[in-house]
Amino acid sequence: MPHSITQPDFSLGANGLLPAIAQDVSSGKVLMLAWMNQEAYLETVSSGFATYFSRSRNKLWRKGEESGHRQRVIEIRIDCDADTILVVVEQTGAACHEGYESCFFRVLRSDNYTVDQPLMVDPHSVYKTGSSSHRPKSSG
């Protein structure tokens, strides 16, 4: 019988960060991969909306804080080792900062990656500050 685990084990991740996979509740599609530290995890649990840790900005990143494309949490799961988090969400708008439904919009066909999703929004109309390097990124 498996032992009881009360939360992800952040001591297992590099710098206290664990990978967090966002999955759409309706389609089952993987939307993005980001990172959570314990603070981001606890805020996600308490607020009911996905919060991640941005490695590039070294701070919490509340998904949709700039774009309005929020992720309402439906369910949170952890894997058998308690070192990966699955956040099942109801996605509002595009999950990807490049304007696609999912960050996984490129698929390998023969020897080339091609885009297999329609663009949902123009990222320049959603992210009004700075260049793309300053936009939230799924990998954080």
Please compute the radius of gyration using only Cα atoms: 15 Å
Largest sheet: number of strands, sense, barrel closure: 4 strands, mixed
Report the structural category.
Answer: mainly beta
Number of domains: 1
Q: Oligomerization state of this entry?
A: single chain
Low-confidence stretches: 130-140
Strand content: 25-35%
Question: How far apart lie the N and C ends?
Answer: 36 Å
Element-by-element helix/strand order: EEHEEEEEEH
Give helix % range.
Answer: 10-25%
Strand order of the largest sheet: 2-1-6-5
What is the second-level CATH architecture? Roll
Number of strands: 8
| Outline | globular
- The tally of helices reads 2
CATH topology heading: Ubiquitin-like (UB roll)
CATH homologous superfamily caption? Phosphoribosyl-AMP cyclohydrolase
CATH class: Alpha Beta
Could you write a compact summary of the structure shown?
With about 140 residues, the chain is mainly beta. It is built from 2 helices and 8 strands, in the order E-E-H-E-E-E-E-E-E-H.
Annotation keywords:
disordered C terminus; 10% helix; 8 strands; two-stranded antiparallel sheet; 2 helices; mainly beta; 140 residues; globular; Ubiquitin-like (UB roll)
Write up this protein:
The chain is mostly beta strands and 140 residues long. The protein contains two helices and eight strands; from the N terminus they run ββαββββββα. It has a four-stranded mixed sheet with strand order 2-1-6-5, covered by helices on one side. The protein has a two-stranded antiparallel ribbon with strand order 3-4. A two-stranded antiparallel sheet has the order 7-8. The relative contact order is 0.20.
